[in-house]
Design goal:
- This is DNA ligase (ATP).
- This protein is α+β, with helices and mostly antiparallel strands.
- The protein contains 16 helices and 45 strands.
- It folds into 5 domains: 14-200, no CATH class; 221-410, D-amino Acid Aminotransferase, Chain A, domain 1 (2-Layer Sandwich); 418-533, Beta Barrel (OB fold (Dihydrolipoamide Acetyltransferase, E2P)); 558-659, no CATH class; 666-770 and 783-797 and 815-836, Alpha-Beta Complex (DNA primase, PRIM domain), CATH 3.90.920.10.
- The radius of gyration is 32 Å and the shape is flat.
- It starts with 13 loop residues before the first helix and ends with a helix.
Length: 837
């Protein structure tokens, strides 16, 4: 929160005082004023206020108070969107930091949060502009930036002082169809600070920090050409640097290569010191054409496809008869014609290198840097499909080994792992089905899980040919001490172990808590790497945006004719709730309800990859039995948005995860009202179900269904199989229906539940699914399934109380997760089963 100066004058806030009882409301009372110098920065705040209905309070500090406007729809970056702004009473400057709940019966009763804050600058004389009814100003906030304007539109006879708030056309302006800041960033900047948007997403390139006119090599030292040189290594970055002076380059997907030039003769070395000159004869000949007698160069060899480095293509080139397609991108020079340059600042080394490579030709290229903020370059790199960025301190020396002056920021997680074993491909002789992986820590080889995708039949045969001669009788790591294996049931027991000498390059989604790779894909062998040096790298794949860019085809397509909700609206909803929803989807097989032409037209369920693939979703081969179609899971944001792109409206999940498919880890009771059942009776039914569960020693959580009813969810330790869990749920429902027959029915069918609530236990069978938390429903209004606390039950108005247009706004006002303890609850049905028998 920026520092906010106190009142500048001693203007009374009589209207503000008259409307509030400060003995009851937590809002700040006006404090004594103290004048400040005119050059103090002015504060602004936008407060999100739910008082019967949602609106935004836009406040600008001026003259010792906060000039205030109520903006029902909130600000918008689209200059075409003119937002109504009602001028209301001035507020004390202290109000800019107020977040809290104004009690019932008080003026403005409801919840207030700080949606944005920062400083503002008037264009011209602000006092005169306000008096004239035309105020132009620039904002420097965490969500809002650029030029804005407030214009009075009220007529003298109007009872309200009406203005219009709108964005001026500048570099920050964006069409509403492309970016809705209200929906994209709905949360408090106090609880979820973002940092200034001008620093996070600069709209213009910063001044060049590139090469000076005269190259300063004064730190170079005369020295003989080193016989060997260990390369500098980058440290994985957890975030992009926001300060300091950095040179930003693309992280190239290839092999690190150092070139040693001695009296015009070239030798090429890998990062591990292996001499690859004979493997790259043609490339070495190209380097020899440089106008230099002695040098050490550092760079990366790649093969380009459509201008982007392709690691698989590089491997093919290395195995082929010619290295003609290989390009050497050089990014540093450590020694040049009798002088050691390692103490020379990086910018000067690169300037000298640029001159050296000026006429080098297409196969020897200078690795260009980008004169734009790292966050901006990172976003572009991610969109292009690059591996990530290299960020190097502009004034840094060249230091062998890993250092903090070189950082690598990955768009996707990539690293090398040791191949410790393999499994056969089912039904195909001479091909591998999966690779079993490991990494070193404290000199010991550790299990890292497995990978079963990323190769074609030719590569599968090549890996087989390489690995079978290396077979050994026992695993190279301690299987007994390792975490439980994550290999598929089909592969279990069929592991074939090998000497840990080969290294695989992997791309994967994340590390699990027990040190295994998730959603891994094989990229190729690293013949330039030594297995003994493979460790688990720190760091993570980065994202610079608080909310992802949502792009869909046919964004204007109407999904729900009753509300006008479009395909883009639905995709934006799923993007905005992803952090809450993904834990409920992750690793759970699912059925997806698709509505290609909207929910008023034909809809259908999809459970398997079938003909229409969705990039990003994980397919689990052989999940049920050999030959069964692959089950699908949505484990990442990309997968969730991919499904939304393919017109998925509803997500229904199993009661078990793919890791323990036959052992459910929850029981769900779906309370479905029959004809004539009032909402209050559904609430009573939920309370009765909860009470009986507590008597059986079982904790349960509540969520709306997004439709007519409610869902009661009981987490379990996954020990019993589906038939046993279903037997419990059947016995439970029959017991409650027998005990209170006037309220409950245990029999499906509309005729059997007229005036009663049907508690559906059939959803607890193998392969049965239930709408996931936060899933939208394909019904008019597009309600969503919302987790709530039991204390909220009495205040609920329907099972579809929140919909895709209101759910995210509701969440932005919630400070506690009502299901926070759900994930850590360990309980079994053993005692409950005995008591129901």
């Amino acid at each position: 929160m920026p520092s906010i100066p106190p009142d500048r004058t001693r203007l009374p806030l009589s209207n503000y005082r008259k409307k509030r009882d400060f003995r009851v409301t937590p809002e700040p009372a006006p404090s004594a004023a103290s004048p400040l110098a005119d050059d103090q920065r002015l504060a602004f705040v936008v407060q999100k206020h739910w008082s019967g209905r949602l609106h935004y309070d836009f406040r600008l500090e001026l003259g010792g108070v906060l000039l205030s406007w109520a903006v029902p729809k909130g600000p918008c970056y689209d200059p075409k969107e003119k937002r109504m702004a009602i001028h209301v009473e001035d507020h004390p400057v202290d109000y800019a930091s107020f977040e809290g709940t104004i009690p019932p019966k008080q003026y403005g009763a409801g919840t207030v949060l700080v949606w944005d804050h920062g400083t503002w600058e008037p264009v011209g004389d602000a006092h005169e502009a306000v008096k004239a009814g035309k105020l132009v100003f620039r904002l420097h906030g965490e969500k809002l930036a650029g030029l804005w304007e407030l214009v009075r539109i009220a007529k003298p006879e109007d009872t309200q002082d009406s203005w219009m708030l709108f964005k001026k056309r500048d570099e920050w302006a964006q069409p509403l169809a492309e970016y809705d800041v209200i929906k994209a960033l709905p949360d408090s900047v106090v609880t979820k600070p973002l940092g200034l948007v001008e620093e996070r997403e600069p709209k213009s390139a910063r001044p060049s920090s590139g090469v000076d006119t005269e190259i300063d090599l004064s730190a170079a030292a005369p020295a003989p050409l080193p016989a060997k040189l260990e390369p500098q290594l980058a440290t994985p970055a957890d975030s992009l640097p926001t300060g300091g002076d950095w040179i930003t380059e693309a992280k190239l997907d290839g092999y690190r290569m150092l070139a040693r030039i001695d009296k015009g003769r070239v030798r090429l070395f890998t990062s591990g010191g292996h001499d690859w000159t004979k493997k790259l004869v043609g490339l070495a000949a190209e380097v020899e054409k440089l106008a230099v007698s002695s040098a050490w160069l550092d760079g990366e060899i790649v093969v380009l496809k459509d201008g982007i480095p392709d690691f698989a293509a590089l491997q093919d080139a290395m195995d082929g008869p010619s290295d003609r397609s290989i390009v050497y991108f050089v990014f540093d020079v450590m020694y040049l014609d009798g002088k050691d340059l390692r103490k020379v600042p990086l910018w000067a080394r690169r300037a000298a290198l640029s001159e050296l490579l000026e006429n080098a030709g297409d196969r020897i290229r200078f690795s260009q840097d980008f004169q734009a903020p790292p966050a901006q370059v990172f976003e572009a790199a991610a969109e292009l499909g690059l591996e990530g960025l290299m960020l190097k301190r502009r004034d840094a020396s060249y230091v062998s080994g890993r250092s903090q002056t070189w950082l690598k920021a990955k768009c996707r997680l990539r690293q090398e792992l040791v191949i410790c074993g393999f499994t056969n491909r089912s039904g195909t002789a001479g091909e591998i089905g999966s690779l079993l992986l490991g990494y070193y820590a404290d000199g010991t080889l550790h299990d890292a899980g497995s990978v079963g995708t990323g190769w074609d039949a030719r590569t599968a045969r090549d890996l087989w040919a390489r690995l079978t001669p290396l077979e050994v009788d026992s695993p190279p790591f301690d299987v007994a001490a390792a975490k439980p294996r994550r290999w598929s049931r089909r592969a279990a027991g069929g592991e074939r172990w090998v000497q840990p000498v080969l290294v695989a390059e992997l791309e994967f989604a994340a590390w699990t808590t027990d040190g295994l790779v998730r959603q891994a894909s094989f990229k190729g062998l690293r013949v330039d790497k030594s297995a003994s040096g493979v460790i688990r790298e720190a760091g993570k794949a980065l994202s610079t945006n608080p909310v992802p860019q949502v792009r869909v085809t046919h964004p204007e397509r109407i999904i729900d004719p009753s509300t006008g909700v479009t395909k883009l609206d639905l995709a934006r909803y799923y993007a905005s709730v992803a952090q809450w929803m993904l834990p409920h989807l992750k690793d759970r097989p699912l059925a997806m309800l698709r509505a290609p032409n909207g929910i008023a037209e034909e809809v259908f369920f999809q459970k398997h990859a079938e003909k229409t693939g969705m990039p990003g979703l994980t397919a689990h081969d052989g999940s049920l039995w050999p030959g069964h179609p692959s089950l699908l899971t949505v484990d990442t944001l990309d997968a969730l948005l991919s499904a939304a792109q393919m017109n998925v409206v509803e997500f229904h999940t199993w009661n078990s995860t793919v890791r323990r498919l036959d052992k459910p880890d929850r029981v769900i009771f779906d309370l479905d009202p029959g004809e004539g059942v009032k909402w209050v009776h559904i609430q009573e039914a939920a309370l009765l179900v909860h009470t009986l569960l507590l008597e059986l020693g079982l904790k349960a959580w509540l969520k709306t269904s997004g439709g007519k009813g409610l869902h009661v969810v009981v987490p379990l330790t996954p020990r019993l199989d589906y038939e046993e869990v279903k037997s419990f749920s059947r016995a439970f429902v029959r017991h409650i229906a027998k005990t209170i027959p006037e309220r409950f029915s245990a029999t499906s069918g509309a005729a059997n539940r007229v005036g009663r609530v049907y508690v559906d236990f059939l959803r607890n069978g193998m392969g049965q699914t239930t709408a996931a938390a936060f899933s939208a429903r394909a019904r008019p209004g597009m309600g969503v399934s919302m987790p709530v606390s039991w204390e909220q039950l009495s205040a609920l108005k329907s099972g579809a109380q929140w919909n895709v247009q209101t759910a995210r706004e509701y969440l932005s006002f919630q400070s506690e997760d009502p299901w926070a303890d759900y994930w850590s609850t360990k309980q079994t049905l053993a005692s409950a089963l005995k008591r129901l028998q």
